[in-house]
Design goal:
GO terms for molecular function: DNA binding. The N terminus is likely disordered. The chain is globular, with a radius of gyration of 24 Å. The protein is built from 14 helices and 16 strands. It has three domains: 72 residues, Orthogonal Bundle (Arc Repressor Mutant, subunit A); 131 residues, 2-Layer Sandwich (Nucleotidyltransferase, domain 5), CATH 3.30.420; 172 residues, Nucleotidyltransferase, domain 5, CATH 3.30.420.40. With 400 residues, the chain is α/β, with parallel strands linked by helices. α2 crosses α3 and α6 crosses α14. It binds zinc ion. Zinc ion binds next to loops.
Amino acid sequence: MRTGSFQLMKSMNRSIILNLIREKGPISRAEIAKITKLTPPTVSNIVKELLRSEFVIETSQGTSKGGRKPTLLDINSNHFFIIGIDVGHVYVKFVTSNLAGDVLEQVRLKLDSHPNKQTMINVLKRGVHKLLEQSQLHVDRCLGIGVGMHGIVDNENGISLFTPAFNLRDIPVASVLEDEFQLMVKVENDVRAMTLGEAWFGNGDKQENFVGVNVGYGIGAGIMYEGQLFHGEANIAGEIGHMTIDLNGPKCDCGNYGCLQAIAAGPAIAERAVKELKFGASSLLTDMCGGDLDKVTGSMVHKAAVQGDEFSTRILHDTGRYLGIGLTNLIHTVNPTRIIIGGGVAQAGEFILSGVQEMIASKGLTQQAKETPVLSARLKENSTVMGAVVLILQEFFVRK
Ligand SMILES: [Zn+2]
C-alpha cells in the first residue's frame, strides 16, 4: 500500500492544522497559531512537513497593516486525486476528482445484463485502468479508490454482501482492487455514498442529522446521524423500499404486496401509467411509445409531464404522495432536519416533490414534522460517485 507518505497525517496536531487550512484557507501561519493555540514554532514545523508532503502550498501574500506581508497557506487541491466508482444497475461510472471535489475525468462502462462475480470484478479493474490512462495522472498521486455499490455492503471489510439486481453475493471488492492497484479502497452502499456526497458537496450543508433517499430502480435511505452514517447492526439500516404502504398494492420483487418501491420506484411509475392507459386514459404517452405500451418508462412519463400532459403530471404527483407516506414514516422514526432525494426518479423534481410535501404536511405529527424540508440532490446523478470519493477524502480531512 502506498500509505507511507501519508503516515504523517496520523498526528493529531498535523490533522488539526491540515483541516483548518482546508476550512479557512488561504490562511497565515500566525492565524493558525492563534486559532489552534499551538505555539508559532510548532505550527511552523508542522507546516514545513505539510509543504514537503505537497498536501499544502504557499499562495499569494496576505494583507498586513504595515510590516512584512504574511505568506498564506492553502490546500494543494490539484496535486493529489481520488478515484470514485458508482456501480449502478446498468452502468458503472468511474471518475477522478481533485481534493476540492471537482470531477476531472470520467469513464462509463456498461455491465452485462447478468454479470457474475468475475465479470463484475473485471469491469471494475478495466474501468480504473481506462480512467488512469485517459486522465494521464500518475497512480502515485492517487490517494485511494472509493466505491458506491447498490445492495448490502460490509463497509468495514469492503465486501459487497448482496446485490439484489444481479443476485450476487460476497464480492471482495476492496481486496481485489487493492491487489490490482496497490491503493487504499473503501466500499459503501450506494445510497449511503449518495448521502455522504450530498453532506460534503451538496445540499447536506452543515446538517448533522439528515436523510438521503434514493428513488430509482429501488428505494433506499442513507441516515446521517450526528455527522456519521448510520449502518445499523448488520448494514441494513435505511432499507425503506420494502416498508408496506398499501396492503392491497402491487406485488414487490421481495414477494410482499404494496411495498414502497413497488409503488413509487421508477419501474412502478411506468407500470401504473400503463395500467391506466390500458383502461383507456388519454395521454401523450400513447404517441410517445408508438402505441407499444411495453415501451413506456418512468422517464418517458416525466418527459410527457414536461410537455404539459395532464395524465403524466397526475401519475407523478400520485407517486410523490405515495413516497410522501414512506417519508413521513421515516420522519417519525429518525426525525431528520431535512430529506434529500436523489436517483433517477428525483430528476422529475417538482412533479414528484409537490406530492411528497403535500403528504408530509398532511400526515406529520407536529408542526415541525409537517415542515421538514425536502430537497433534490444538488449533485444530481453525481451524488453517489462523489460520495465514493468522500470515502477516501474523509480519511484525510474532516467535513467543513
Ligand atoms: Zn418489497
